[in-house]
Task: inverse folding
């Protein structure tokens, strides 16, 4: 096990810079998730840690050793790929044993390691099968088994669950977390799925356009997003944003949006009276109430445990999550109310969180 | 259209399709049929007019006579030695160069590939004299290396292998690199086993091309001892006349290894064609 420290990592392909001086550290035994939209540089960063991409500038340190110039095999890492990258012409056993054979381990040692990994991942009955004879979930487990047998200091995962169906993804999420608890190894996991990031990470690194937007625990990031991008990216359904000006009306702090609708704000908005801001409201922090802000229902999406309502307030779409069954129909007029103490204020120009 | 008339139409189309295919197949098969039937006639009957489709008398011992009249065993060995050697060298060189062109990054790689492919435009016949002069200056006339080496480093194989290697997911190589494999180990343990369809196809093409190669061995080799089968067959053409029946018997015998190899590699070749057609035949 080892910590991973990245200092001002830059990656450029010719004149095009895709990572602009990224610094992040994963502590020994920590589960760090790199999350962000496609093209944000998260996979590039992971591949730089693995040694599959060169580092244009900066330093990558694994276990106190700068590894910039080291080959992947010298970095003491293992990686699980999105496509699993299992060798199709080798059995599960041979796939898992390949790295051990290359490191000239003895036969009994290899057999022991493979058996141990197979036991952890419930792969024993599949050891003599070929990858094509396995389901997606089983292939995923073999890919993890191939990583486990090496006892690497750091596990790297590059969107390993993207090719699985929704149910299997949830199951594998749990299995990877269980594996982390069992091995207590440092794991760096890349995903574009914020739900995966929220449920698996000790810490989340949110990236956009080659830069880190925020680093923090899942709930820290959820409750206190550093900017409107993070607020909008983390959480499903996404945070609602309303532009307007903070004003005081009859002793109450409110946001007056462009259509003149008044959105109640908490005391922390007092410092911004008269200022143009953007307010972020989580869908679950909006309630349907009689006499609230007038909204017309555009769409109703019942998920069973909750209902997602898409409503329109003065021409602006807003999503509301309600936990009770709702009798409203599409086109109906309802009233909504946001919890004023749980709205987040952002600078309208820069998107940075205020207060 | 009713179901009945649809069935009739599809039956008619089937008959038309299969009929067309049968005619083309027969056109391709006829030269082989003619070779085999001429191999079991007397030489007089081969030249007789009107032409008979089947021999009047089947002279099966023509095969044995053809085999014993000239040192056919020697020709056979020479051809086998040359063809197998060229095939092995071609496959190894094509895999190495194909991998370099597909995966290694070095300055001028693509320009070099283009220049390399450009040599395909040069007709082989134009190279015969310069090649002979080189072989002669190296003292390799009338030696096996003189026949083998100039034809073993072809462009086609490198290009075929490069194209196939490009279709192998990069992630497999990256996984192997992380597992601790060197470039050569990746090529040997991952890329080559996954490229068996292409290697099978290249082996078959190369083997058959060399097995049937006439001009180059004729120029480089002198004397009966070093002749390959196609060259040896010409010894049935003498000033006293041509023994067509023996030439056909010898040609029929010389086809056997190619046919055997094609049957042996049939599955690999099918997979290769399927893969190249994007059908995912693996």
Result:
């Amino acid at each position: 096990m080892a910590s991973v420290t990245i200092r001002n990592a830059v990656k450029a392909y010719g004149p095009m810079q895709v990572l602009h001086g990224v610094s992040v550290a994963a502590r020994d035994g920590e589960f760090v998730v790199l999350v962000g939209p496609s093209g944000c540089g998260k996979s590039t960063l992971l591949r730089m840690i693995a040694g599959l991409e060169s580092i244009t500038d900066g330093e990558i340190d694994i276990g106190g050793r700068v590894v910039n110039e080291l080959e992947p095999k010298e970095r003491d890492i293992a990686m699980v790929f999105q496509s699993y990258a299992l060798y199709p012409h080798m059995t599960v056993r041979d796939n898992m044993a390949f790295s051990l054979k290359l490191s000239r381990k003895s036969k009994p040692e290899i057999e022991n390691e493979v058996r141990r990994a197979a036991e952890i991942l419930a792969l024993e009955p599949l050891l003599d099968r070929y990858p094509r004879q396995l389901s997606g979930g089983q292939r995923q487990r073999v890919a993890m088994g191939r990583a486990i047998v090496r006892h690497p200091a750091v596990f790297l995962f590059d969107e390993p669950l993207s090719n699985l169906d929704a149910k299997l993804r949830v199951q594998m999420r749990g299995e990877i977390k269980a594996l982390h608890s069992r091995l207590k190894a440092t794991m760096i996991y890349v995903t574009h799925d914020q739900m995966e990031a929220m449920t698996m990470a000790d810490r989340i690194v949110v990236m956009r356009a080659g830069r880190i937007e925020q680093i923090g625990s899942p709930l820290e990031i959820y409750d206190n997003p550093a900017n409107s991008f993070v607020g909008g990216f983390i959480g499903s359904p996404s945070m609602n944003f309303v532009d307007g000006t903070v004003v005081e009306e009859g002793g109450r702090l409110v946001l007056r949006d462009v259509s003149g609708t008044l959105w109640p704000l908490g005391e922390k908005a007092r410092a911004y009276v008269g200022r143009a801001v953007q307010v972020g409201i989580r869908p679950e922090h909006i309630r349907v109430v009689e006499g609230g802000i007038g909204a017309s229902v555009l769409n109703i999406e019942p998920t069973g445990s909750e209902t997602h309502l898409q409503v329109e307030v003065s021409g602006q779409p807003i999503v509301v999550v309600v936990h009770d069954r709702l009798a409203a129909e599409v086109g109906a007029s309802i009233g909504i109310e946001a919890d004023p103490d749980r709205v987040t204020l952002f600078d309208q120009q820069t998107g940075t969180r205020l207060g | 259209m009713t179901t009945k008339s649809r069935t009739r139409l599809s039956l008619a189309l089937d008959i038309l399709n299969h009929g067309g295919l049968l005619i083309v197949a027969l056109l391709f098969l006829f030269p082989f049929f003619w070779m085999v039937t001429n191999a079991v006639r007397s030489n007089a009957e081969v030249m007789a007019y009107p032409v008979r489709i089947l021999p009047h008398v089947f002279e099966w011992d023509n095969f044995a006579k053809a085999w014993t009249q000239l040192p056919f065993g020697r020709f056979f060995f020479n051809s086998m030695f040359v063809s197998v050697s060229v095939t092995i060298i071609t496959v190894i060189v094509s895999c190495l160069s194909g991998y370099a062109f597909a995966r290694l990054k070095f300055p001028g790689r693509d320009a070099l590939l283009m220049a390399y492919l450009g040599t395909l435009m040069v007709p082989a016949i134009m190279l015969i004299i310069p090649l002979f002069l080189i072989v002669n200056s190296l003292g390799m006339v009338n030696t096996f290396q003189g026949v083998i080496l100039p034809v073993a480093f072809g462009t086609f194989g490198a290009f075929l292998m490069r194209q196939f290697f490009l279709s192998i997911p990069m992630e497999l190589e990256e996984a192997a690199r992380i597992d601790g494999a060197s470039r050569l180990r990746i090529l040997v343990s991952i890329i080559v086993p996954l490229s068996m369809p292409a290697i099978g196809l290249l082996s078959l093409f190369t083997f058959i091309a060399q097995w049937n190669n006439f001009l180059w061995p004729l120029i480089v080799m002198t004397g009966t001892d070093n002749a390959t089968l196609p060259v040896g067959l010409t010894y049935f053409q003498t000033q006293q006349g041509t023994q067509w029946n023996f030439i056909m018997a010898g040609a029929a015998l010389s086809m056997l290894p190619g046919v055997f190899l094609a049957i042996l590699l049939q599955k690999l070749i099918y997979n290769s064609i399927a893969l190249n057609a994007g059908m995912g035949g693996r």
Notes: Chain A touches chain B at residues 50-52, 71-73, 77-79, 81-83, 85-89, 98-99, 102-103, 146, 150 (CB under 8 Å). The mean pLDDT of chain A is 93. The helical segments of chain A are 42-50, 92-102, 107-120, 136-148, 166-183, 194-200, 218-223, 228-233.
